[in-house]
Amino acid sequence: MVFSFIVIPLLVAAFLPLIGKISKKLLPDVLTNAALAFLLFNSILLVKPIFTNGFIIQNLSWLGEKVNLQIALDGFSLFMLFTISLVSLCVSLFSIDYLEHYGHKANFYALFLVMIAAMNGLVLVPDLFSVYLFMEVAAVASYALVAFGLGSDELEASYKYLMLSVVASAFVLLSITVIFGLTGNLSFQAVAQGLQDLNARIVLGVCVAFFIMGFGLKAALIPFHAWLPDAHPSAPAPISAMLSGLLIKVSGIYALFRILYSVIGLSPALSRLLMALGIISVLVAALLALGQKDIKRMLAYSSISQVGYIVLGLALGTPLGIAGGLFHLFNHATAKGLLFLNSGSIQHITGTRNLDELGGLGKKVPITSGTNLVGALSIAGVPPLAGFWSKLIIIIALVQAKAFGYALVAILASILTLWYYLLIQRKAFFGQVREKWQQVREAPFWMSAANIILALICLLVGIFFTPVYKTWISPAAEALARGIHQVLMWGL
Amino acid sequence: MAIQIILLCGLIIFSVLAILLKDLIKAALSLAVASLFLGIIFFLLAAPYAGVFEISVVAGLITVLFVLTIALTKKDGEVKESRIVHLAFPIFFILFIVIDGLVMKSLLQKIPVLPIGPEAGTFGEVLWKQRTFDLVAQIGIILAGVLAVLALFRKKEEDKDE
Amino acid sequence: MSNLWFLYLFFSALLIFIGIYCLLTMRNLIKLFIAIEIISKGVSLAIVATGAVNNNVLLAQSLAITYIVIEVCLVATALALIINIYKKNKSLDVRLLSKLKG
Asked: CATH topology for C2-93?
C-alpha cells in the first residue's frame, strides 16, 4: 500500500504522453487529479497504523524472489507525504484551467507526476544513496518544468538552477561516498550504527559541511540562495507553487534533517551553525523582499525567509522547536502554494505581475483578493490563522532554550513579513480601480476552486489548532526527537 | 601501481585540456579520452561493468550528444574567454595540488574504517537484489529525462491551434 | 588499504577542483557543462575507488552504473536547454544571461 505512493504517479506519467495523443485535455486532467486524490486518501488511511505502531517497514517481494525494496514510514515521513499529496492535488486542480495558455498538458502533467513520485520516494526510502537518487529525479523534472514556457527568462533561470543544483548534488553524493567508505553500508540504520562504533570526528565534520552546503543550496538558505529568486518566478505559476511549497522543503530540509537526525546526530555545535544560517535567511531575505516590484519575486524572497524559520525551529532540537518547525513547514507549504497560485490568477486576469501597474482589483475579483489576503496573513503570522500558531511555537521554543536574541530577530522579521505582504495586498487589490482593469473578470472555476480550498485549509488549521497539532504534528515531532535521542549520546 | 598512477595522471591531463582548449570539438574529444582513462581505471579496480558503462555511455553516447550540440550551435556560437582565466589556471592548480596533498596526507592513517568481510554473490545479484530500489529510481530518471527533452523540443505552433 | 583510498580521493578532489574552477570563470555555456561533466567524473571515481579499497566493489559498481544513467539524463536535459537558449539569443555567451539577477 505504501509503495503506491511511488508507483502510481510513475505509471500514470509513463502512459500520459500516449494518452495525450488520443485526448489532449480531458483525459490527462482527469487521470492526474484522480491519481493525486487517491494518494491523498491513501495518506489519510495510513494515519491510524502509524498511530498504533509508530512506524511501518515494508519489504516487497517481486516475482516470488526476495528483492530489497524496503520502505520505512514513520510520523515524519507520513507528515511529509500528506503535505505533498495535499498541495500537489490543489496545484493540479489549478493547472486544469491555467495550463490552457501553455498547451501540451499531457507532457506537463507527466513531468509533474514524475516530480511528485520522486518526492514521495525521497521521503520513503531509508537509504542514503536512494535519497540522492530521488533528489536528482525530482531535480531533472523540475529543470524542465521551470523552462516549460520556453521564453528566454525561463530558459535562463532553468540553466542557472541546473548548474547550481548539479554542483550541490555532487557535494551531497561525495559526502555519501565518504560515509559509505567509512562504514561500508548505505542504509540509515546500519550507517548510524557503524558511525557510532567508529570515532571519525574530522572526516564526519567534512561530510556534514558538504551535506549542509548541498542541501542548503537545494533549500536556498541565504549564502546559497542565488538561484531561487530567478527560478521560482520564471516557472509557470503552478510550478512555482510546487517548487516553493514542496520541492525546496523535501529535497532540502527533509533530506538534511532526516540525515542529521537519524544518521549523523545533531550536536550542539551543529545546531548553533544551522540556527545561525536560519536566522540570517529569515532577516536578510525579508529585507530583500521589501524592495521587489514583481509579485512572484517578492514571494520567492519570502520563501527563503520562511525556510529560515523552519530551519531555526528544526535545528533548535528541542521537541517544541521541532514541532514548531514542522508545523511551519506545513503552513508555509499551503500558504505559499496559495499565494503563488494567486499570483498566477492575477497574471491570468490582468496579464501582468508588476505591482506598480496593478491596483484596485479587490472589487472586481473578490475571490482572488480574499484568498490572497488569507494566505498573506497566514504567512505573516496574524491570529487566528495557521501561520500565527507555528511562529508562536517557534518563538516560545527559542525563549525556552534561552536564545533570546534569535527570538527577538524572529519577531522583528515577522513584522517585516506582515509589512511586505500588506504592500502586495494594498497595491494590487485595495484602493480605486484603475481605468485599465475595468473590464477584468474573476479567474476561471478550477483556479478559484483550488485557491479557495487552500485558503480554507489555512483558516481551518488555525481555528482547529489543538486537534490538528495533536494528530499530525506531535507524532512527526516525536519521531524526529526519538532519532535525536538515539544518536545524541555520541554526538559529532 | 605505477600503471594506475599513470592512468590517473592521464585522466587529469585530459580533463585540464577539456577546459583549456579553445576549440569546443577538441574539448569534447579530450573529455571523451578522459572518460576512456577512467573506464580503464575502473577495470583495474575490479569494476569491469562500470568500466564498460563508462566507456560506452560516457565516452561514446555523451560525446556524440556534445558534438551534436556543438555542431548545431556552431554558427554564432563562438565566445571569447578572457585570457587571465587561462593564465591564472596553473597557479591555482598547483596551489590546489599542494593543499589537497597536505589535507590527504594529514588524514592518512588517522581515519578508522570498519573492517568488512569479502562480499558474497555476484554483481548481478547485488544490483538486482540489494539495490532494487535504484532500478525503480532509474526508471524514474529516464522517464524524467525523456519527458524533459520532449517538453523542451515541442513545437511552438502546436500550442496555438489548441 | 586505506593509503590507496586517499590516493584516489586526492585525484577525485583534483578533478572536482578543475570543474569548479571552470564553472566559476568560463563564459561559454557548453564549456560550463563540460565542467559539470568533469565534476561528475571525479565523483564516480570516488565511488568506485571507495568500494574497491574497502572490499565493497560490487555494491560500488552498481552505484556507479546508476550514477552514469543519471549523468546521461542530465546531459540530455542540459544540452536541450543550451540549444533552446542558443535559438533565442543566437549566442552561447553566459554574459548575455544576466537579465535576471539573484
From this structure: Helix Hairpins (1.10.287)
